[in-house]
Amino acid sequence: MLAETFLKGGAYCRPLMARDGLADALVDPTVAKIEALGGIVETGARVRSLEISGNRVAALDRADGGIVLGPRDPVIVALPPTRARDLVPGLTTPDDGEAIVNAHFRLSAPPPPFPAGAVALGVLGGAAQWIFVRDRIASITISAPGPLAQADDAALLPRLWGETRQALALPDDAHYLAGRIIKERRAVFDQSPAGVSRRPEARTPIANLLLAGDWIDTGLPATIESALRAGNRAGALARMLSA
């Protein structure tokens, strides 16, 4: 990560922010592209198991019926590592790691802009670590939150609002119109040396089965960039397998 950012200079360290959100920037265009090419995107249809035959995935077992695969159909498993381990026989992965806590506040008016056109505000000395603002929404991110991951939302929300109000230089009597805490308990995989040593490659011993996710051995930590790199790698391999 350091070699691809700091050691290349400032231009490689500038953060990129989705203008309207990750759904608009990544998810919606992807779904539209898949459908334009004749594909189908299904949600809420959990795969319970993989049917392996002759060192290939022959079918996907789902509660609403199985999906039989053709001889040139590849399968990409893009699940959290421990979930992937439950689905793929003999797979070695890192364990689950730290959680991430996010808080979102809807403000009555846009706050003052960040200095010098910054896209995020770092916070020192508080529970909050980063504050992002999009129009009238202020979002707070806390990585590796420790006990805060178990804290009661009703008690945590006003605490984080107090820090947000102060950081954004809002009046003492400013209040939010709506607030929400979101806790992602499997946000990142175990990135200890032992955990990193268990990161697998995209290819598996099963001929048509590939892996994707930030926990694949991409050389990057648990980041969106790592997930994108893993997805690109799995996609390129899938094209080779189906050619």
Describe the protein.
By secondary structure, the protein is an alpha+beta fold. The chain has three domains: 9-41, no CATH class; 42-95 and 196-242, 3-Layer(bba) Sandwich (FAD/NAD(P)-binding domain), CATH 3.50.50.60; 100-184, Alpha-Beta Complex (Polyamine Oxidase, Chain A, domain 2), CATH 3.90.660.20. 25% of the residues lie in helices and 21% in strands. It is built from five helices and ten strands. The chain has helices spanning 22-36, 81-87, 153-167, 193-196, 224-242; strands at 47-53, 56-62, 67-68, 75-77, 100-106, 121-122, 130-134, 137-143, 178-184, 209-211. The strands form three sheets. It has a five-stranded antiparallel beta sheet, covered by helices on one side. The longest helix has 19 residues, at 224-242. The chain is elongated.
Please summarize what this structure is.
This protein is α+β, with helices and mostly antiparallel strands and 243 residues long.
The count of strands amounts to 10
| Low-pLDDT windows of residues | none
CA-CA gap between termini: 33 Å
Strand order of the largest sheet: 6-7-8-5-9
Class per helix and strand makeup: alpha+beta
- How many helices in DSSP terms? 5
Reported for the largest beta sheet, the result is:
5 strands, antiparallel
Order of helices and strands: HEEEEHEEEEHEHEH
